[in-house]
User: Fold this.
Amino acid sequence: MATSMVPAGYEASLDRAGLALGAGGVVGGLFAAGLVTIGSGFDPFPMLIGFLVGAVITAMAAVAIGGPVWLACHALGRRGPVSAVSVGALAGFALFLGGQTYGFGIFAMPQEDTPTLLYRWMSAIATSLVLALVSALIGLTMWRVAYRRAG
Assistant:
């Protein structure tokens, strides 16, 4: 009698994927609420608005930017936590770097920004690295909620 071996790996279900999207949104919302608190002090209403806006934007970015990359990773069998952290970090870094550099220099920038172009790029890289860490945490959180070991 032959037995079939299920390869070691991770699998997700549609319900856990939905919960993972919500969990990623919560992490992004908490980060946004923290930034609002740092910027304006402890005030519950602005913190709530920051949380809600941050959660929605995080979930949208996870679907629009991380989703296609993660689908490729999933199809290739790269479903582990290292892949989730890598996709989160790289997608977050690219998103924030492009957003701060006029689409990596593709779009026109104001003429008055020309003298500070090097500073803009250095600052964009530094802040994008910090935000890549947050994006990596979001990716790891979403992976932890969505995936279970196969078998």
Remarks:
- The two ends are 20 Å apart (CA to CA).
- Residues 44-75 form the longest helix (32 residues).
